[in-house]
Amino acid sequence: MEVVFAVRASSRRLVLRDPIPSPLKRPANGMGRIKPSLPPPHPPAAFLQLPADIVLYLCQEHLPPASAVALSLICKALFNLVFPRARLGLDMNALERQDLQLVLEKDLGHAWWYCHYCSLLHPISTQGPTSGTRDSYSWMVGWDSSHPYHNRRWLEGSSFSVDYQSVRLAMNRHFRGPLKGLPLESFNVEASSTTLTPWQRKWLPWQERWSARVVQDELFLSATRTLSGAGWTDDSLRAAFDHEWRQICGHVRTSGPAFYSMNTLLRPSPTVFTPYHDLIESCRRCLTDFAITVEQRLEDVKEGCVEEQPTAFWLISITSYQRLGSGRSPMDIQWEAFGNAMTASANRMQRDMSAYPPGAVKAMWESHEPEH
Ligand SMILES: [Zn+2]
Ligand SMILES: [Zn+2]
After folding, report:
1. What is the residue extent of each domain of the chain?
2. How many CB atoms lie within 10 A of CB 188?
3. Handedness of CA 253, 258, 262, 266 (dihedral sign)
4. Minimum-distance ligand to the CA of 320?
5. Which of 153, 171, 347, 371 is the most exposed place for a label (fewest CB within 10 A)?
6. How far away, in angstroms, is 119 Cα from ligand 1 center?
7. What is the DSSP secondary structure assignment for residue 237, as one 8-state letter?
8. CA 367, CA 345: separation in Å to the nearest integer?
9. Which residues pair with 177 in a beta bridge?
């Protein structure tokens, strides 16, 4: 039931009244009036029972502008009391307006989120990262150069993409409670791989599993990418691997130009791949670690084929760990390193390797096992 408050001129107190007539009407046969079974109304907050002058004094003298405006939005009467000349009352500077919207986001965080780039509250329009097949050009959809911080980040060679809105919403859930933002589970995405230039029209069968954790009030992402070479010859697998790269972060690829690629996975001589087990490496620019395992396995022999020898195949697994920051601003350097790696400022950044040596991000991820 909607309620409004009105200021009664005589007593100068805020008075609660119910402006909506009962929806129940007398039956046509003239029988007695039906008693509504509505829950008892909540008593008005103690604050609103104070004399209007006191309310006005508290709002004007003791509350920061953003809190005063947010409080006055409880009802028209309170708003008119605190801001009798609305234009004057809401003549806030940019910082005060931002504070107000951040206060409102706290209350309305189930449906709205605050964007520092636009300085606006936007309606929530995401359910988290997505995974979908892409054709040659669809990865460009969503790129809006006038709103660069709204863009989704797509790591080349993956169908997984994540936008800043999802990062902020996941952290809003962490900071503000279960009804706000998005759950971390919305980052549990299984993605297949794709690329603009498949090797001889056949994509390498990479599979990805993504998940997220909050560690020390920051969002972390992890993805396990697995490539099974079963059914591929060594030469065709190696040729496709060199031709189709997969981005691990905005700066590191599985193959391709040497500056960007993982040295450990470059073509060795004379073997096709060099075996590794859980080799830890890291990006030199952003807070991304990755663990590489390269091994040979034997294919299962089909039942009944007693004479058939098991065939060996290569299995490559790369698990990445990425620290995305607290999601409080799209200009956060950690989000920028991941989400906008193409910007000039992101290109200039260097990871502090003495403070964050290879494995530091992985260790933080593993320090915080989720509760089951
Ligand atoms: Zn925006
Ligand atoms: Zn990087």
Report:
1. 4-22+38-115, 126-300+309-366
2. 13
3. positive
4. 2
5. 371
6. 7
7. H
8. 31
9. none
